[in-house]
Design goal:
globular; binds NADP nicotinamide-adenine-dinucleotide phosphate
Length: 416
């Protein structure tokens, strides 16, 4: 690389300080994975909205240069790899990236590219804010009472991908080992999966969730687990969570069990309240008393189920953004999948990916552009201009294509 080019690369690269905060140049290069299925449609809509918001807000002063990197079905077709090493390296180098959804075949073929990406980059927290946008049709009578941020552990649990097919040599070996060494009888034709959960991964996830609550002035963090049944994995997640809370955050937090709370469950001294709930009960709580919960920290599988259920409460998967964050890089992504039946039809709702882009702008510190997009989306929805998924539940609305929804948001961005 000649010296001028090297200089250009350095001045457009986001870097991470020792304390984890970012140094963001005015013209950062941000890698993107377009995604499979509806990915190309929603990415095209999303990138146009992000570019317009940055342009309207900052003019010539700031601009994102997008760098396309391959992953998923197309990458597999071209290179034989669903997640090329070069893609991982580019994301590591540029620190912040955004992606569309990627296909994972069920019960056969390659393991999930999404899971591999999170594990290889050690993106240990999947963060999903769930907030209601006024005017969006939902099954709830009071969706505005839902305002939570889910921190889902991203690297362990049954998602670690340690499992063996029924009657395979490996499954039979594990079954024999358990019988011979621990006297445990497992039906011979069983498939076997392993659920690892460590102190280190549980503590860092809970610590990130509590830090987020402190930074954003949120009243509580709830550890959601199934420790009554899985005592040494999910139960330990809860114990390690409480342990991290008290060791790292000291008198900035208070335990619900200490009993010094107001009637609404909040701390009289504005400390963050740490509490825990069993996962099945939590699914009732988020329907019946959503206003009592602010930040949720939970293992991988619980978090996957809970964040989709919460997304449905505020209007469905098409509306729910997400981010995968580690200590050294972050990948922002829509919560939903590739919705194959709408692939290439310019029909899907791009809001989930656009709002993931909003989270990305917030992480860059470009909060003015982020809030301009939120306002423009809100305006388009309250003007009744929506994609099919909302239109079918909003009598009197105007159904538009994915690209037309982006046009509508861009038009409103110019007036924000
Ligand atoms: P999905 O792709 O999320 O789609 C399920 C349904 O959700 C769609 O049929 C559609 O419902 C609705 N939906 C999803 N995205 C939407 C959008 N942007 N706009 C409007 N409606 C939307 O789930 P799936 O069918 O179970 O998964 C398909 C593939 O995606 C699988 O290979 C899966 O592994 C993968 N996946 C990837 C990710 C990821 O990349 N992070 C996440 C989840 C799943 P209606 O048909 O009712 O309109």
């Amino acid at each position: 690389m000649d010296s001028q080019k090297k200089h250009d690369t350095e001045t457009c690269q986001i870097t991470t300080r020792a304390d984890g905060t970012l140094v963001v140049p005015d013209r950062p290069v941000i890698p993107f994975i377009e995604g499979d299925g509806i990915g190309p449609d929603i990415w095209a809509a999303c990138s146009r909205v992000l570019d317009q918001a940055v342009d309207t807000t900052y003019g010539d002063q700031r601009k994102i240069t997008w760098l396309k990197v391959p992953a998923g079905e197309k990458a597999y077709g071209q290179t034989g790899e669903s997640l090329p090493e070069e893609t991982l390296q580019v994301i590591k180098d540029y620190v912040v990236a955004i992606k569309g959804p990627l296909t994972t075949p069920v019960g056969k073929g390659m393991r999930s590219v999404n899971v591999a990406l999170r594990q290889r980059l050690d993106l240990y927290a999947c963060i999903r804010p769930i907030r209601y946008i006024k005017g969006v049709p939902t099954p709830m009578r009071h969706p505005e009472r839902v305002n939570m941020v889910v921190f889902r552990e991203n690297t362990e649990d049954v998602y670690a991908g340690i499992e063996w097919e029924a009657e395979s040599r490996e499954a039979e070996a594990v079954i024999s080992f358990l019988k011979d060494n621990m006297g445990i009888d497992i039906e011979k034709s069983s498939a076997i999966g392993v659920k690892p959960m460590s102190r280190r991964a549980s503590r860092r996830l809970v610590a990130m969730a509590i830090q987020y609550a402190l930074d954003h002035d949120l009243a509580s963090v709830t550890l959601v687990h199934k420790g009554n049944i899985m005592k040494y994995t999910e139960g330990a997640f809860m114990r390690w969570g409480y342990e991290a809370a008290s060791e790292i955050f000291g008198d900035r937090i208070v335990f619900e069990s200490d009993g010094e709370l107001e009637n609404d469950g909040q701390s009289p001294s504005s400390k963050v309240v740490i509490k825990d709930r069993i996962a099945d009960m939590m699914f009732q709580q988020v329907l019946l008393r959503p206003e009592s919960y602010h930040v949720i920290a939970t293992p991988n599988l619980n978090g996957d189920y809970l964040s989709d259920a919460l997304a449905a409460q505020v209007g469905g998967l098409g509306m729910a953004p997400g981010a995968n964050i580690g200590d050294t890089c972050a990948v922002f992504e829509a919560t939903h999948g590739t919705a194959p039946k709408y692939a290439g039809k310019d029909k899907a709702n791009p809001v989930s990916l656009i709002l993931s882009g909003v989270m990305m702008l917030e992480r860059l510190g470009w909060t003015e552009a982020a809030s301009a997009i939120e306002q423009a989306i809100q305006k388009s929805i309250s003007d009744g201009i929506v994609t099919y998924d909302l239109a079918r539940q909003m009598p009197g609305s105007r159904e538009v294509r994915c690209s037309q929804f982006a046009d509508s948001v861009i038009e409103r961005l110019r007036c924000v």
